[in-house]
């Protein structure tokens, strides 16, 4: 006879927060700190992140996340690619786009002010 009693589920442990900021933030800070005129190379960005942030010392995993954040940054225009294609080449900080204010909608003409006083 097989035991058909339901198995107890083990509660998943909550993930501890990372000891570093998001990779997109780290990439932005690296580009800003490097201050290179033609844009910062991905290798220089990697070196900066490895030296200044508390990330794992395994360059391969950091490299994967950095590559994905570079691509995403170019796609959402927070980063601008100055040389190369994809996640290779040099990158600059993109232009910050401020949301435009909508012009006031034209309201229908409601008459002249104080029009009730006219004779």
From TrEMBL:
<dbReference type="InterPro" id="IPR005819">
    <property type="entry name" value="H1/H5"/>
</dbReference>
<dbReference type="InterPro" id="IPR005818">
    <property type="entry name" value="Histone_H1/H5_H15"/>
</dbReference>
<protein>
    <recommendedName>
        <fullName>H15 domain-containing protein</fullName>
    </recommendedName>
</protein>
<feature type="region of interest" description="Disordered">
    <location>
        <begin position="1"/>
        <end position="23"/>
    </location>
</feature>
<dbReference type="InterPro" id="IPR036390">
    <property type="entry name" value="WH_DNA-bd_sf"/>
</dbReference>
<dbReference type="Pfam" id="PF00538">
    <property type="entry name" value="Linker_histone"/>
</dbReference>
<keyword id="KW-0238">DNA-binding</keyword>
<feature type="domain" description="H15">
    <location>
        <begin position="19"/>
        <end position="95"/>
    </location>
</feature>
<feature type="compositionally biased region" description="Basic residues">
    <location>
        <begin position="7"/>
        <end position="19"/>
    </location>
</feature>
<keyword id="KW-0158">Chromosome</keyword>
<dbReference type="InterPro" id="IPR036388">
    <property type="entry name" value="WH-like_DNA-bd_sf"/>
</dbReference>
<feature type="region of interest" description="Disordered">
    <location>
        <begin position="75"/>
        <end position="119"/>
    </location>
</feature>
